[in-house]
Amino acid sequence: MKEEKKFVIYMVMAFVPAWILQFVGIINAFSGRAIVYQGAMAVSMYVPLLAVLVANKGIKKAKTEIEWGCHWKENWKRFPIAWFLPAIATILGAVLYFLVLPEKLDMNCGALTQTMEAAGVMVDAEGKVQGIPLGMLGIIQLISAVTYGPLVNTFVAVGEEAGWRGYMTPVLSKWMGKRGALILSGIIWGIWHAPVIVFAGYEYGRDYAGEPVLGVLMMCGFTTALGIILSYFYEKSQSIWIPSLMHGAINAVAGPPLLYMKEMPQHYLLGPTPAGLIGGIPLFVLGIVLFIRMCKEEKMREKV
Question: What does R_g of the chain's alpha carbons equal in angstroms?
Answer without folding.
Answer: 20
